[in-house]
Design goal:
The structure is a single chain. 70% of the residues lie in helices and 0% in strands. With 128 residues, it is mainly alpha-helical. The protein starts with 12 loop residues before the first helix and ends in a 16-residue tail after the last helix.
């Protein structure tokens, strides 16, 4: 499986915020896979462990990973809290007419983003 990419050609404030939001989502996906693997590790240990000492060691390992993930979740929450106001501003911009919101980029760039005279029906890439 290849690494996901986040593309945004004409970087503006809204596109940057959208990219940050996408990066948070990708990190959350990775975290879910790690937590799932830790759960499977625990299930396997319970099914094959012969001694209580083995279970305690596995439990310590899983607990350590969960503690580290908890710290990462706090960082991701802080990151999200920082970009929320920017994303809220971007929602207000979406309500504007396309012709006004694309003045900086020119008509051809608007079409590249799937925006034309009827852009209110076709959201800007950074607004997904």
């Amino acid at each position: 499986m290849s690494m996901p990419t986040i593309e945004c050609n004409n970087i503006d404030k809204c596109c940057a915020a959208s990219s940050l939001l996408q990066s948070i989502a990708l990190e959350e996906t990775a975290i879910s896979h790690i937590l799932n693997a830790e759960g499977e590790k625990l299930q396997k240990a319970v099914s094959i462990a012969c001694e209580q000492k083995e279970l305690i060691e596995i439990n310590k390992s899983v607990e350590s990973m969960v503690d580290k993930i908890t710290g990462l979740e706090i960082v991701l929450k802080s990151k999200l809290d920082l970009i929320k106001p920017i994303l809220d501003d971007c929602k207000d911009c979406r309500k504007d007419n396309c012709k006004d919101s694309c003045k900086d980029y020119g008509k051809d760039d608007c079409k590249n983003y799937g925006r034309d005279d009827k852009c209110d029906k076709k959201p800007h890439k950074s607004e997904y």
